Amino acid sequence: MQAKTEATPSDRDLRLLAHDALTDDDALMLFGERIDMQVERIGGKLVVSPPMGFDGGVRENDLAYLITTWARSHGYVTTSPSANYRLPDGDAPAPDVGLVRQDRVDSMSERERKKIPSLVPDIVVELLSESQRTPSAVSIERAKCERWFKAGAHYVVLIDPFSRKTTVWGEAPVDFPDLISVFGPPPT
Q1: Are strands 123-127 and 97-101 parallel, antiparallel or unpaired?
Q2: What's the longest Cα–Cα distance across the chain?
Q3: Cβ 173 vs Cβ 123: under 8 Å
Q4: Domains identified in the chain and CATH numbers
Q5: Average of pLDDT values for 171-183?
Q6: pTM for the whole thing?
Q7: What distance in Å separates the CA atoms of residue 152 and residue 24, rounded to the nearest whole number?
Q8: What HEC string does 120-162 produce?
């Protein structure tokens, strides 16, 4: 007679981490909405970015406030870096700030809004962090931005808050704010 064993949630978590391919539901089950790291699913594997320091958190929050203020008055909904989007190739990256037109959000079911949606944000903003100042890290972020644009985002912005420069893909919407203004004057 064989003993029957039940898997505990922690056993399930370990089994999922041991597999190469994770689904959206697996990632949501593992991390839920309370993780203090950014988690993206790329090529079926989890890419975990560590939480940022205080200064980075201030930069990210100031940027999100400026964008959200604009978005609300222009018919967009904004998402934070903890919201992922499933791209046509199945990957689920998360932009630092994603903007989706309100009518697109309204067309989603309640179930779709609780999961990782199969849509590309209309506008994507990526913000370089202190740890992303190396040429190789900047190259990775540029490739991520190019990927958002090729997947269908209408406007993508990569911000380097340290040099006070932006790289853009596409055309900015009417009255879109000057995102660099959040970071003050350039260093001297």
Answers
A1: antiparallel
A2: 76
A3: yes
A4: 52-183 (3.90.1570.10)
A5: 93
A6: 0.75
A7: 20
A8: CCCEEEEECCHHHCCHHHHHHHHHHHHHHHHHCCCEEEEEECC
